[in-house]
Here is the input.
Amino acid sequence: MLNRHSVPRRSTLALASLVALASPSVLHAAPTPPDAPVSAAPGHFWGDTVVVPGSRDLAAEIEPKAVRQGVLFINFDGANIMMGGDFSQNDSSMIFGQEFAPHGGSEAEKTAIVDAVKVDFELYDVVIVDERPSTGDYTMAVTSPTNPLGGGVLGIAPLDCNDGMPNNVVFAFHGAGDGYSPSGAAGTISHEAGHSYGLEHVDDPPDVMNPANSGGDPTFRDNCTALVDPMVVCGAAHELHCEGGTTQNSHKELLEIFGSSIPDVMAPVVSITAPGDNAYFEAGASFRIDVTATDDDEVRSVQLFEGDAALMTSTMAPFGWDVVDIPEGIYEFTVTATDRVGNVGTSELITVYIGIDPPEDAGTTGDTDGGLGQDGDGGGCGCTQPAGSPVAGLGLVLLGLLRRRRGLASAHDAVRSA
Here is the structure.
């Protein structure tokens, strides 16, 4: 599946055999470069995408991956690329198997290209280098005037959902004297690298991943924008940040993979807002545990504890759980909140007295009339969530906790026996 609006017929034929097994994304340009250097000529088209083997995730349930540092190696020195699976360390590509000439530009020109790519990725923990790393994973951008596709095609790359194969090889067909400024060449490199990280084309001219450059200085935009192609490839990855998976937040997806260039050392701030500390309820009462959690980036999950026992986790605000028909006892609740990079914040502990009077010197706060209303005979407890909640079935967990107070070894054992 290729965008043919500015690709010569010979390029389309050359790529047709790759559709089933590769996933090249073609970055198009006009057949001839502009007379004067420009960042990228407005109206030049960036092509459609197909899939890297094993990367199609339309029906997948993708869990957020651990944040890791990315490395983008801009190879100006030429390479003898072998046909095979993408593996940058061995100069192996799923798209080409041939020799690519060096870029041929001056050191100043190459430095300017590198600096422009750094600007595109400056918000993310992605290191941009022009010397091959000796160890570790890296994406390689072969930047060479050798253009096997010809006819104004500026670049090609695999579309790798969620950067599942972190050693991709992408191609930017630029060389000395081609009429493109350093920022124009950098735009090709950044666009094709974006495809290798799982970004598809969006209908948003200021976004690096827009299929037609409209001039200016595009960035990886922080908004959910409609994808250009109705045949969405990396829908599950997009859905982590944009409901439905048919739009894409380029900025958030890069943060998901690589994290911020500014280290996030701030833990979320979390608190239990209801019931209050030392709250009293009659045995068999029902009430709600309400939680607020904030972070300078994003709260990924909130987890409820009673004592040391982890009970339930919520991944969607508003955070909280309904407690139903709670038996007599003294309960000590805390909540933790975790952000995107794993920083954990913990709330103050609150004590809730059920059918047992608080100590005389304890300040009593919260409802004392049963909150959600009396229910049952005090012989068990259920926790409920609104329909469709990501923590459905939590009633069993808290029921297990309360049974544990009556002699079971652990909440987990109680759940299994419930």
Summary: Confidence is low (pLDDT under 50) at residues 1-23, 28-50, 55-62, 366-418. The chain has two domains: 9-258, 269-417.
